[in-house]
Amino acid sequence: QQVIGFTIAPQVLQVLFICILFHRLQVGAVIAVVMVSVVIFSVYSVVVAQWKNRIRRVMNEAENRVSEKAVDSLLNFETVKYFGAEQFEVDRYSHNLGEYQEATLRTQMSQGVYFTGQNFVVTIGGAIAMVFASQQCFRGQITVGEWVMIQGYLGALFGPLYHLGNNYNTINQSMTDMENLLALRELVPEVRDVPAAPPLNISEGRVEFRHVWFNYGKDSTGKLVDVSFQVEPGRFLAIVGPTGSGKSTIMRLLLRFYDLERGEIFVDGQNIAHVQQTSLRKRVGIVAQDTVLFNDTLEYNIGYGKPDATTAEISAAARAAQLGS
Ligand SMILES: Nc1ncnc2c1ncn2[C@@H]1O[C@H](COP(=O)(O)OP(=O)(O)OP(=O)(O)O)[C@@H](O)[C@H]1O
Ligand SMILES: [Mg+2]
After folding, report:
1. pLDDT value at position 4?
2. Test site for ligand 1: of 247, 257, 287, most ligand atoms within 8 A of the Cβ
3. Do 232 and 225 contact (CB within 8 A), yes or no?
4. How far apart are CA 234 and CA 294, in angstroms?
5. How confident is the model over 88-131, as pLDDT tens digits?
6. Which residues line ion ligand 2, judged by CB < 5 Å?
7. Can you tell me the distance from the alpha carbon of 93 to that of 96, in angstroms, rounded to the nearest whole number?
8. Which cell locations does it reside in (predicted)?
9. Atom 9 in ligand 1: which residue has the minimum CA distance?
10. How far is the CA of 249 from the centre of ligand 2 (A)?
11. Residue segments in the chain with a per-residue pLDDT below the cut of 70
12. Which candidate among 23, 87, 151, 206 keeps its CA 20 to 30 Å from the CA of 189?
């Protein structure tokens, strides 16, 4: 909006004023050439910009792949090492980098074509207009002074036109670059807090699943059918079953990563679908199947779930896990 308000609008006004001026000088041929140049310039800019955007999109996708591969192989460094796949990862990364490099070159090339073409239209248009102006000057229809004035104004006209093309290019390019971001922003999370949801209030820690039905989607094999159980405060519950039977799913539902198809889950009598998600997750401790550590101190890792934990609390937790001395 700012670009349109502060740069494009004044430029359009300038073009209009100069056209009116030429009209009063009665140099019809010059006006005609200017009009035709402006039309060719605009059509060319729009058409070539679309072609250019397609090339740029390919470059952006290549760039995404490069960072994806880098993050992926670094995050899974242990797996990479288990399989001695360092060289494989390096090759894969180089391959993607090569693609990105090529795409960048093509983008630069398309940029060159875009600006060269615009320059060409402006230069040829200006030259032809000056030929007509000169003819009129020789015939005595305009004075030499007016000829010089026309030349000056043509410069003042094609300059802004060129800027206009530039701005159009900038906007177009930014829009292409932001496509993924804008699409992401349109997404609405499936699990949302109900309006004015209160925080979860835990006193004892009683957990109850009441007739819970759940599946991951229409085509998914994973589903829970009418699951009910209660865990009294201070008691342990072990869930045993074959792989894929839904043990981790029960944990995910307790943390409300998904909403249920039917049924309710209660913690201390409060339906977890009706409390703030963050307050629920803050109060549930979890030790996952595969443990990961942040690249920081043990203290930082142990205290991660409770940023305001004291050193004494962290030491106690470490001792409880047979970590501390
Ligand atoms: N995000 C998901 N989208 C679709 N289906 C899923 C998803 N996560 C798990 N599933 C499916 O749901 C079922 C239950 O998965 P879950 O991870 O709960 O099994 P599990 O009992 O924890 O298995 P394991 O003993 O291997 O840890 C499986 O069939 C699995 O393929
Ligand atoms: Mg599991």
Report:
1. 63
2. 247
3. no
4. 30
5. 999 999 999 999 999 999 999 999 999 999 999 999 999 999 99
6. 248
7. 5
8. Membrane
9. 222
10. 7
11. 1-8, 324-325
12. 206
Specify the amino acid at residue 215.
Answer: N
Q: Which residue's C-alpha comes closest to atom 25 of ligand 1? A: 243
Domains of the chain: 2-186 (1.20.1560.10), 207-320 (3.40.50.300)
DSSP state of 200: P
Structure tokens at 125: 């248009």
| Residue nearest (by alpha carbon) to ligand 1 atom 19 | 244
C-alpha 231 – ligand 2 centre gap (Å): 19
Helices (H), the chain: 2-3, 9-25, 28-75, 77-82, 86-138, 144-186, 247-254, 277-282, 298-302, 311-320
Q: What is the DSSP letter of 219?
A: T
Taking the mean position of all CA atoms in its chain, how far away is CA 182? 6
Q: Which position has the token pair 């993924």?
A: 180
For residues 63 and 99, what is the distance between their CA atoms, to the nearest angstrom? 9
- The DSSP element (H or E) to which 191 belongs, if any, is none
Rounded distance between C-alpha atoms, residue 52 and residue 59, angstroms: 11
Amino acid sitting at position 106: R
Question: If you ran DSSP here, which 8-state letter would residue 209 be given?
Answer: E
Cα 55 to Cα 48: distance, rounded to the nearest angstrom: 11
Which of 40-78 are b and which e, b meaning 16 or more Cβ less than 10 Å from the residue's Cβ? bbeebbeebbeebbebbbbbbebbebbeebeeebeeeee
Instruction: Give the single-character DSSP code of 237.
Output: -
Select from 279, 142, 258, 259 the least CA-distant residue to 201: 279
- Residue 35 amino acid letter: M
Say how far apart CA 91 and CA 95 lie, in whole Å: 6
Work out the number of other CB atoms within 10 angstroms of the CB of residue 312: 8
Q: Using only C-alpha atoms, what is the Rg of the chain?
A: 34
pLDDT tens column, 302-319: 888 888 999 999 999 999
The closest alpha carbon to 200, from 273, 260, 261, belongs to 273
